[in-house]
Amino acid sequence: MNPSTQTLIADITATLSSPESLYGLLHEHRDGDPLPSQPALSEFIELCRSVLFPGFYGQSNVNSNNLMYHTGVALERIHGLLTEQIQAGLCFASGWGQVEAYGETYASAQDTRRHKAAQLATEFISCLPQLRQTLATDVEAAYLGDPAAETYGEVISCYPIIRAITNYRVAHELLRLDVPLIPRIITEMAHSQTGIDIHPAATIGHHFTIDHGTGVVIGATCIIGNNVKLYQGVTLGAKSFPVDEQGNPIKGIPRHPILEDNVIVYSNSTILGRITIGHDSVIGGNLWVTENVPAGTRVLQQKPKSNPCNS
Q1: For the chain, what percentages of helix, strand and coil (3-state, to nearest 5) are there?
Q2: Tens-place pLDDT, residues 221-249
């Protein structure tokens, strides 16, 4: 390497290491602090799938005779993986990452985080029976809502909505337990795999399905009722972002739509803002909706009127 290149590298190194270039972009790692691992979280979510849908995921030789054994082994692994990943997530959370928040030594703070992570992992595992019951309704909705679906097994194995809604429901339970960072990573995994973007903070009722799925966006403060069906390209988003005195968006306020029970939204429609789509309503395709829709309404594109001069 010639001297001029060495000088250039030294200058760029100094620039990239300067505090002003790193504002908000550097995670100060401490020895002993774990980092969230995408491979570990991928294994975790696949193990959850194997427990929730045994035989379709995980061990292919599962049957009624060995199901309890395989389930027990999977749950022990889930608990261990999730404990490690929650502990890593806590290192990023406000307060949890600071030793001063505990009034303890650094080693004691690590032990506190580990204990909290194990407790949260245990609470998550206790949610799995109810989680399976809800996912069973989603599988049923996808099967009954698609005449091309021949079996429940086809829906579980092949349909992107089942992969996306499983990730979402797992992530939502973790978010409900105040687990930081990890829920968002889990839903973004499904987003990358399926093109379905569901924020883990959204609230979604039972018997939910999305036909095809690609391009669907469901925002963080959405509330979706029971028996709701979306088609590809639907956006449930925010119309505007109220700002503070400094011009920065105000976070945490309800800004996404509410869809009541038995609503259908057809492909490529966009519903924006904190509006309510009343129960049993149908929103046609390729529409832009920014106002409340009364219950039982069909919102469709207007047909072009014929020109009398051409008749």
Answers
A1: 45, 10, 45
A2: 999 999 999 999 999 999 877 788 888 88
What is the rounded distance in angstroms from the CA atom of residue 61 to the CA atom of residue 148? 28
Residue 238: both structure tokens together = 């925010």
Lowest average pLDDT, out of 77-81, 85-89, 293-297, goes to 85-89
Q: Across-strand partners of 237?
A: 272
**Number of neighbouring beta carbons within 10 Å of residue 197:** 18
Determine the Cα–Cα distance for residues 75 and 107; give it in Å rounded to an integer.
28
Beta bridge mates, 204: 224
Query: Hunting for tokens 């908000």 — which residue is that?
Result: 24
- 144 pLDDT exceeds 90? yes
What pTM was computed for the model?
A: 0.88
Q: Which of 252, 211, 212 is nearest to 228 (CA)?
A: 211
CA dihedral 287, 288, 293, 299 (to 10 degrees): -20
Q: Where are the beta strands (DSSP E) in the chain?
A: 197-198, 203-204, 209-211, 217-218, 223-224, 229-231, 235-237, 258-259, 264-265, 270-272, 276-277, 282-283, 288-289, 298-299
Cβ neighbourhood burial of 285 (10 Å; 0-12, 13-18, 19+): middle
Question: Pick from 141, 134, 196: which is nearest to 163 by CA?
Answer: 196
Phi-psi region of 215 (alpha: psi -120 to 50; beta: other; left: phi over 0): left
CA distance 56 to 101: 45
Tokens 């030594």 belong to residue: 105
